[in-house]
Design brief:
InterPro entries: FYVE-type_Zinc_Finger, ZFYVE21_C, ZFYVE21_C_sf, Znf_FYVE, Znf_FYVE-rel, Znf_FYVE_PHD, Znf_RING/FYVE/PHD. GO terms for molecular function: zinc ion binding. By secondary structure, the protein is of the alpha+beta class. It is built from 3 helices and 13 strands, in the order H-E-E-E-E-E-E-H-E-E-E-E-E-E-E-H. The protein has 2 domains: 105 residues, Zinc/RING finger domain, C3HC4 (zinc finger) (Herpes Virus-1, 2-Layer Sandwich); 100 residues, Zinc finger FYVE domain-containing protein 21, C-terminal (PH-domain like, Roll). A hairpin with a 3-residue loop joins strand 9 and strand 10.
């Protein structure tokens, strides 16, 4: 096993909330991940924290795996995937949290895969007047933006300060725009100054332009 594979290795753990597949090393955690919340102690929640129904032998209490609050079965009946906490199976969540998790599912099922598959751009570093054709992708552990061409860069996601998506085709009435590039600002470890990179979609092939636009759209989703 290589050093990278060892750092990215995962293990199966059981918590009160369910089975989770987590990185063996905390340093390899995804920046999109969430920690499991502490559960509100049973003795502190005699009633449902949503509908105020009193708990008894018939009305049991359940904890939402996303927020840790205490609810009755009616207010916490949905089992929804929660990949941000690395749960293997869908877990019980309150209605409010379930709605948030369902919205995030598209990001994990679609946008994240697009980012990891990568796309090709002309990349310009800082104020340079020269650009380099590079393949840009999100690393498998989701911690780095990896750029490969004649040069090689790895930008840690948590060091990115701003993402500006460049578009064309804008009209006063709105609509009909497409992403054609991106300006990224980030900090290099050990420096407080911001470094800027400009990404421009290649015009060589129409299929590549479509892939690049999808990748930029996914990157915009990450930066929100």
């Amino acid at each position: 096993m290589s050093g990278c594979e060892a750092r990215d290795a995962k293990k199966l753990v059981r918590s009160p909330s369910g089975l989770r597949m987590v990185p063996e090393h905390r340093s390899a955690r995804s920046p999109f991940g969430l920690d499991e919340p502490p559960w509100v102690p049973d003795k502190e929640c005699p009633r449902c924290m949503q509908c105020d129904t009193k708990f008894d032998f018939i009305t049991r209490k359940h904890h939402c795996r996303r927020c840790g609050k205490c609810f009755c079965d009616k207010c916490c009946s949905k089992k929804v995937p929660l990949p941000r906490m690395c749960f293997v199976d869908p877990v019980r969540q309150c209605a409010e949290c379930a709605l948030i998790s369902q919205k995030e599912t598209e990001f994990y099922d679609k946008q994240l895969k697009v980012l990891m598959n990568g796309a090709t751009f002309f990349v310009t570093l800082g104020t340079s007047d020269k650009s380099e054709l590079m393949v840009c992708r999100l690393s498998n552990n989701q911690r780095y933006l990896v750029l490969d061409g004649d040069s090689h860069y790895e930008i840690e996601i948590i060091q990115i300060s701003t993402v500006q998506i460049l578009t064309e085709g804008f009209t006063p009435g709105g609509g009909n725009t497409r992403a054609i590039g991106m300006i990224l600002q980030y900090k290099v470890p050990g420096s407080e100054e911001l470094t800027q990179m400009k990404f421009t979609a290649s015009e060589d092939f129409s299929c590549n332009k479509k892939l690049s636009a999808s990748w930029l759209a996914a990157m915009h989703k990450v930066s929100k």
